[in-house]
Design goal:
about 475 residues, alpha+beta, Uridine Diphospho-n-acetylenolpyruvylglucosamine Reductase, domain 2, Uridine Diphospho-n-acetylenolpyruvylglucosamine Reductase, domain 3, Alpha-Beta Plaits, 4 domains, seven-stranded antiparallel β-sheet, five-stranded antiparallel β-sheet, 16 helices, about 20% strand, globular
Length: about 475
């Protein structure tokens, strides 16, 4: 993951550029290097690669023709929504390449309130979709931290999670069907608007978390659910990260399933409070932000009281229950502001998401603390502790080459510890470029070989997002 300078742009024939402009219109084709630089990277700390051209089709039909034209011309193809990816999955290939933007395909095409599903284009912004469903009395639970700008196509391509993943699941739990263009520009349709569906191979499942390596989405069918009618949010404060992480394991062991169960250590508390000023306990070793919800207010209150008692039994110094919706919203806004707050401290933030079984959270938290001390690095840890998905965030400066070697060593240590605990390299950020070299530690040779065979079958010339997912 050593940062590299941006690769020089590989030009493409002027005749091909003219063809693209004729197909899409002058304003939908970017070819000047000053314009292309914005598409050379995503939100990951990896090398950059300037694409040869950026293309922005505005309709499904134009998207299919654009994919075919790029493939026929031998261009490497990287689909891009908002570029919020944290593993380098939206960084273009190093050869002659095209970035195909999907954010102009941003319509909610259908909302079926009787059968609880919606059909959307890939460029719909996640938070906008959630708000539109809320206005209809419906609920779309996946809520990645980037939801204010990330798009649904990107969410599916990376199987995005979020704060509500513990109870409600992640993007995969809401994907009912897909339409995508294959390497020949043919529109492939798979999945259904029905609750049950076993016709043909599970192509929606195959496309999920494929990081744009198998085709380009044009439509998504997403499941909706009724919204909870009541909720209780609370903040539990602890003298140490160990006590907080033990509480997470205790809550799960008690077979209680909060809708959210989030962890922030002292470093995160201090920087978030400095920005948010909402009264977070900055002298605490760590806090848990917890919410219970459901269909009946009394049942929700009963569950909240059980969670409160577990927190106190496991060393919480205090448990503060949000008195109203405004206080609840402030707590969750503060949690969502954790990464931006940390990012203000140093030039570079390396955010990881190694994930472990929930019972192993205390051991993983302890391992992160130990690794930070061993390497002498400043680290803030937060994340979705309820589903074992922690985000150790290393604060550094990638321009310091010697110092960054310590960062690389710590990241390697994080993955080593997570895998030793029965965990995984990535819970929600994906493999992309950043984690490709560690893939063989988690998956065996036969698994990787089969994945490569599937990829070659669906992408014979290996032009869809080269170097990502499986290399």
């Amino acid at each position: 993951m050593t940062p590299a300078p941006a690769a020089s742009r590989m030009t493409i024939p002027k005749t091909l550029l003219r063809d693209f402009r004729k197909l899409l219109g002058e304003d939908s084709v970017l070819s000047e290097e000053a314009d292309l630089l914005s598409y050379a990277f995503d939100s990951a700390v990896v090398g950059q690669s300037v694409p040869s051209v950026v293309l922005a089709p505005a309709t499904e039909g134009l998207l299919g023709r654009t994919v075919k034209a790029c493939y026929d011309a031998g261009l490497q193809i990287t689909a891009r929504g908002a570029g919020t990816n944290l593993s380098g999955a939206a960084v273009p290939g190093a050869g002659p390449s095209a970035v195909i933007l999907t954010n102009r395909l941003n319509r909610i095409l259908e909302v079926n309130e009787a059968d609880l599903y919606a059909v959307v284009e890939p460029g719909v912004v996640t938070a906008d979709f959630a708000k539109a469903m809320e206005a209809k009395g419906l609920f779309y639970p996946p809520d990645p931290g980037s939801q204010q700008v990330s798009t649904l196509g990107g969410n599916v391509a990376l199987n995005a999670g979020g704060l509500r993943g513990l109870k409600y699941g992640v993007t995969k739990d809401y994907l009912m069907g897909v339409e995508f263009f294959d390497w020949g520009g043919e529109l492939v349709k798979s999945g259904s608007r029905t609750v049950k569906w076993v016709t043909g191979y599970n192509l929606p499942g195959l496309m999920l978390a494929s990081e744009g390596t198998l085709g380009i989405f044009s439509k998504l069918i997403l499941k909706l659910v009724p919204p909870p009618k009541a909720s209780v949010a609370m903040l539990a404060s602890y003298p140490s990260v160990g006590a907080a992480s033990q509480t997470v394991a205790a809550i799960i062991a008690a077979h209680v399933l909060p809708s959210t169960l989030e962890f922030l250590d002292r470093k995160c508390l201090q920087v978030v409070e400095a920005n948010a000023r909402i009264g977070l306990p900055t002298d605490a070793g760590a806090i848990l932000l917890i919410e219970t919800d459901g269909g009946h207010a009394e049942g929700v209150k009963e569950e909240a009281e059980l969670v409160r008692s577990i927190c106190l039994k496991n060393g919480a110094g205090s448990v503060r229950v949000a008195k109203d919706a405004a206080e609840r919203d402030a707590l969750w806004a503060a949690r969502r502001n954790t990464l931006p707050s940390l990012a203000r401290l140093r030039p570079t933030t390396v955010l990881e998401d190694a994930t472990v079984p929930r019972s192993k959270v205390p051991e993983m938290v302890a391992a992160v603390e130990r690794l930070a001390k061993e390497h002498g690095l400043e680290v803030g840890t937060f994340g979705h502790a309820g589903d074992g998905n922690l985000h150790p965030t290393i604060l550094c400066d990638r321009r310091d080459r010697e110092g960054f070697k310590k960062v690389e060593a710590m990241v390697d240590g994080i993955f080593t510890e997570a895998l030793a605990l029965g965990g995984t390299l990535s819970g929600e950020h994906g493999i992309g470029i950043a984690k490709a070299k560690w893939l063989s530690r988690e998956e065996n040779a036969a698994t990787i070989g089969l994945s490569k065979a599937i990829r070659k079958a669906l992408d014979p010339r290996q032009l869809f997002n080269p170097g990502k997912k499986v290399v």
